[in-house]
Amino acid sequence: MKKLIHIDNYESFYLDYLEGTLSEAERVAFEEFLAAHPDLQVEEELLFLDDAPEKMDPLQKFLLKKEDLSIVTNENLDYFAIGKVEQVLSAKEEKLFDNYLTSNPEAQKLVAAYRETRLEASFVAYPNKEDLKEKEVVLIPWKLIVGLASAAAVLLLFFQLGFNNAKETNLPTTALNNRTGNQPKPDSKKSFKVVPSTNPIEENNSFVAQKNNANAAPHSDNPRNPNQKEKNSPDQLIPVQPELEKNPVAENKPHHPTILPQVKDDKQPVAPTFNEDVEKAPSKDLAVHTGGSNMKNPIPIITNTLSEKTKTPVDFQTGKATETQKGGFFVKIGKFEISHKSSKKK
Amino acid sequence: MTRKEYNEAVELYADNLYRFVVKHTQNRMLSEDVVQETFAKVWEKHESIDAAKAKSYLFTTAYHQMVDTLKKEKRTTSFESEDIKQDDPLSHLFDVQKTLQEAVNKLPEIQKTVILLRDYEGYNYNEIAEITNLNESQVKVYIFRARQTLKNYLKSTELVA
């Protein structure tokens, strides 16, 4: 038998030994085996579960109950004390416990002890609160940006020109009247009408150079001498167009067609001018400030570029004020139109 | 919840949320991450969130985010709460509150959560139940147990009678 119990099968003998089911010979043999192998012995208290009854915490037991307690005892005192601190007792329980407290100072101390378990809220600041916020993002359509920028550019250009027009040379009233003497006076009540010039822009530009020369010349050479006016034939009253070859810039620069829906002929549409005012053009206009005869009128280039970029018709027309007619400007970008009338020249 | 209401919620609740998490985890960096992640999640769903329930939604999200983060941290690293006593705003408080804070840190996670929500944020049992996915009875049990534990801890330090 002794030989039958070995290190590989002793567990089954061990269990039977603990259960007391081994025969006498087996029991003796197993005890001899354990004596020979003391390291295999197991503490008996580990082998048997403690069957002593566990008492549930009375507090937990009372918490499980679904009915109001009708009496305060030492067992449920914690339940009432915590319930009072937590303010979760029913009205009936509250009244019952308050009565109990009046006659039990120890219970009052218990309630005070539970009150001490309430955490006081301290202020703790989150360090990066601003980073958590969602910033307003306004998405502006690029077309709107382009449109606004274009309008701003055109308006800026107009105000520059308008400013210079306001400072134009004051011609004698009589001379002006003589120049236009045989021509029918336009009705001053009629609205200002802009007449697009059919001349290439370079011709108008060449006028700038001529005008500058005229400004540089002494006053005695002024062709608008009233005495000379009487000798002029009506044909001579038509403003003299500057010669094309006087403007080398105009010869070299290509035309930039502007989309002008109202231009019906096949001539190059250009920024309009009053042909009759050509001779009395301001002496202190943009040309004077920007370098004289080589200046190129940028309006067609700008309007052309804008119309290409926005793929909408772009138009810009200006007219200078005279004694009889109002001046003004007209800007059109697609359906967007701005017009302005200035007062008559005095 | 509009963008404006969301930003107001940040202004109103970010500090409270941060306090709730930092008291729980005892780790400022981790808490900042949790708060940041919480608000990011809320912003993702801000259009479907009622502004009136923003606070509850934030705390619910923060609680779950914190639990997930703590699980992850404990799994990947030997997570240890940092010692924040040096610059802890509680350091000026009376001994009872300091000891109480120590006691709270020893509570089981769920008891700590319900006590922090109850005392710091003043939530009722029903609201705490919603945030923690418990039922009201469970919340009551955890709070009562926690109070008992805290009282016994304070008594052991002879800070209360």
Please explain how this structure is put together.
The complex is a heterodimer of chains A (346) and B (161). Chain A has 346 residues and is mainly α. Chain A has helices at 10-19, 24-36, 44-47, 58-64, 77-86, 91-102, 105-115, 129-132, 142-166, 173-179, 201-216, 226-229, 234-237, 248-252, 286-290, 299-310; strands spanning 314-319, 327-333, 336-342. In chain A, helix 9 runs antiparallel to helix 16. Chain B has 161 residues and is mainly α. Chain B folds into 2 domains: 1-81, Orthogonal Bundle (Rna Polymerase Sigma Factor, Chain: A); 90-161, Arc Repressor Mutant, subunit A (Orthogonal Bundle), CATH 1.10.10.10. Helix content of chain B is 71%, strand content 0%. In chain B, helix 1 runs antiparallel to helix 2 (28-44), helix 2 (28-44) packs across helix 3 (54-76) and helix 4 crosses helix 7. The model of chain B has no long low-confidence stretch (mean pLDDT 86). Classes of the chains: A mainly alpha (346), B mainly alpha (161). The interface between A and B is large, with 33 and 46 residues.
Number of E strands of chain A: 3
Question: Level of helix content of chain B?
Answer: over 70%
- The 3D shape of chain A can be described as elongated
Poorly predicted tracts of residues of chain B? none
Oligomer state equals: heterodimer
Q: DSSP strand (E) fraction of chain A?
A: 5-15%
For the largest beta-sheet of chain B, the strand count, sense and barrel status come to:
none
- Describe the global form of chain B: globular
Considering DSSP H and I runs of 4 or more, what fraction of the residues of chain A is helical?
Answer: 40-55%
Short overview:
Chain A is built from 16 helices and 3 strands. Chain A has 346 residues and is mainly alpha-helical.
